[in-house]
Amino acid sequence: MSEKGDRVAGRREEVLAALRATSEPMTIVAIADGLGVHPNTVRFHLDTLVGDGRAERVEPDRRGPGRPPLMFRAVHRMDPGGPRRYQVLAEILLMSLAGQRNPAAKAASAGRAWARRIAGRDDRTAISANQSARRLVKFLDELGFAPRLRTVSGKQQVGLRHCPFLELAEGGSDVVCPVHLGLMRGALEAWDAPVTVEKLEPFVEPDLCVAHLTASTKSPVASDFVP
């Protein structure tokens, strides 16, 4: 952030601190007087704070004559604008799962359950094998896998050129890759597709993982991925 940006952010925090310092709603003028700044400066920062959910307007008391002033108060909750550390949470859960018995099957089951719930919101009209494959590619693309449908030796495959969990997969492919396998199988099951993913081969090339499609005449083993 630039020096100017730091000053703007700092002033905004001062406006929020003024609101938090009292249990009563405050007017723009009262905040400005307390901080020694122009009311327009306070109004500018309040607009942002309200938009971020950190402050809120309060209906004023209309018993007196004239137009009542705008009143504001702080929203007392965790700051929604604070930093996120989802990768740390993912690493914690990954370590926990990796330490359990048969982690690959459990990881695949978790991915499968999530995908069935999410993909099940889609249209469930009957679809062909080719339609299923294209829908799977679209589903994976929305998740950030950069998938491409291809045919090798007469069999359909989905090549994955990007891993949205790359840092985790490089250090824990025995758990993360089965999650990917479960995602694909769960989505296809949710659509009642006539195909499934027979197996997933991670990193067959440095920038490529391959999912092998096959007719869903049987239920594949939960951990059919090639480490």
From TrEMBL:
What InterPro entries does UniProt report for this protein, alphabetically? Answer: WH_DNA-bd_sf
For this entry, the protein name equals Transcriptional regulator
Q: Which Pfam families match?
A: HTH_20 (PF12840)
Q: What is the lineage of its organism?
A: Bacteria, Bacillati, Actinomycetota, Actinomycetes, Mycobacteriales
Q: What organism does this protein naturally occur in?
A: Mycolicibacterium holsaticum
